[in-house]
Amino acid sequence: MLRPFVRRAAAASVALVPVLLLAGCGISTGERAVGADATEPAVPPALTEVEPLADPRDWEGEVVVAPDDAVDPIAEAPEQQLPVTLTDAQGTEVTVTDASRVLALDVHGTLARTVAELGLADTLVGRDVSTRAEGLRDLPLVTQEGHDLSAETILGLDPTLLITDTSLGPWDVVLQVRDAGIPVVVLEPDRGLDNVASLVRDVAEALGVPEEGAQLAERTRAEIDEVRAQIEAVAPADDGQRLRMVFLYVRGQSGVYYMFGEGSGADSLIEAIGGYDVAEEIGWNGMKPLTDEGLVAAQPDLVLMMSGGLTSAGGVEGLLERLPALAETPAGRNRRFVAMDDGAVLGFGPGTAAVLDALAVATYAPDAVS
């Protein structure tokens, strides 16, 4: 959590997270095909409204889902307590005197979503390409060619505050914004279930609404806990019966094939939806290029992916052609893939409960996805 004047400074050096690493579908259960012509992600019904399969391995095909992106503000236009002085994740002391024109930018779109959930969507003057939550899609885009920040566009919007992390670049653009006299608050780029609440509180503190931040953090945690309890009720209790899962990051047009392991955020996602995290078993840490040996050792029952990555590889068919070793795994033989929008699946913000719920339905009740 950011604390005025007292937060221990993080390392001052900037460790840019590479943008490449953070940035026809049908399924069948038995003989019955479901959604064979679907090409767009579907928002499934809630896990509590569907009938899970008796055997979570009893389906074939790929499922592309989207979480419910409806924004539910914790307050309506809360009063901002400004000025506030804080020390950000890089150890930089920042004083915010005006948060009426805000840019909240990161590779997942999580920061802007958090601003909106705090009841301050009207302060947002632009967005990154990953910010697609309800009510925010029409904001001017300040990223180009994917996730590259545009200094000209940012400065042209005359922001009074920039909240960001190190997941977007070029970093010189962020420095240019700061040199222009605009307060820049840099947050931690790491995302996972263990820091969802602290991320919410940090954004709220920079905006001068700490009480609303505490309320939103508490609500988000409660929603996550509730969904996880529902998932535990349908997931196999025994580790040996849980679906062996891996998370693949793919950009087919660039020849990028990574498997995300321990400490990447994907590990906590897999655990939260009741899967068995194969990465821990095979000692796969962080984000590393995929190898045939890694796939053979993993033998996943199910592969989690970003939907943009799956499309870039030519869908499941193209991916299996490019990665023959994957075709020899249980997931590959059964075409058992679950994909979600790039900006949502590893965002770990106020919408996390909806992400977990949608992924759980796709995993345990895929025939409910249409």
Low-confidence stretches: 3-20, 23-38
Rg of Cα set: 21 Å
Described by the principal axes of the CA atoms, the overall outline is globular
Oligomer state equals single chain
- Tell me the major beta sheet: 9 strands, mixed
**What class do helices, strands and sheet pairing give?**
alpha/beta
Question: How would you explain this protein's 3D organization?
Answer:
This protein has 370 residues and is of the alpha/beta class. The chain is built from 14 helices and 16 strands. Strands 1, 2, 3, 11, 12, 13, 14, 15 and 16 form a nine-stranded mixed sheet that branches. Strands 6-9-10 form a three-stranded parallel sheet. A two-stranded antiparallel sheet has the order 4-5. Strand 11 and strand 12 form a beta hairpin. The protein is globular. The N terminus is likely disordered.
